[in-house]
Amino acid sequence: MLGSLHRRHRTAKFKKFLSKLDGEVPDCLDVHLIVDNHGAYKTAPVRRWLLAHPPPPALHPTGSSWLNLVERWFAELIGKKLQRSVNRSVPVLERGIRSWIKDWNADPRPYVWHKTVGQILNSLAG
């Protein structure tokens, strides 16, 4: 899990994060980024950066339905770290989140779908 915390959405900060990914993630891995719907991810400088660094990471807005497993990770962050801590300032909160990411990466646990897409759709059609 690579994270980047910023107080404001800015194209320059996002490009810096993309460069960090480009330098740290092996070329053999697919990169998927979960992003909100902010315009910083859709600017011309970001599009140019993505085109200049093939294969580009896939950008997924937070409303994407397959992200339920990513939401589980955020639920763990909230339930096991943020709700159990007292953060008297934004920098303290940010340190806590960075610490959580570091601890997670020391012992990562993948989330695994236990049902096929067909099984899920059939249960919804019920």
Number of domains: 2
Q: What is the string of helix and strand elements?
A: HEHEHHH
User: Any low-confidence stretches, pLDDT <50, length ≥5?
Assistant: none
Q: Which sequence of strands runs across the widest sheet?
A: 1-2
Mean residue pLDDT: 83
SSE-based structural type: mainly alpha
* Apparent shape: globular
Structure commentary:
This protein is mostly helical and 126 residues long. The protein has two domains: 1-63, no CATH class; 64-111, no CATH class. 51% of the residues lie in helices and 6% in strands. It has helices spanning 11-24, 44-52, 68-82, 90-106, 117-125, and strands at residues 32-35, 58-61. Strands 1-2 form a two-stranded parallel sheet. Strand 1, helix 2 and strand 2 form a beta-alpha-beta unit. It is globular and about 45 Å long. The mean pLDDT is 83.
Summarize the model shown.
The chain is mainly alpha-helical and 126 residues long. It has helices spanning 11-24, 44-52, 68-82, 90-106, 117-125; strands spanning 32-35, 58-61. It has 5 helices and 2 strands, in the order H-E-H-E-H-H-H.
What is the element layout, followed by pairings?
Layout: H1 11-24, E1 32-35, H2 44-52, E2 58-61, H3 68-82, H4 90-106, H5 117-125
Parallel strand pairs: 1-2
Question: What distinguishing features does this structure have?
Answer:
126 residues; mainly alpha; 2 domains; two-stranded parallel ribbon; 2 strands
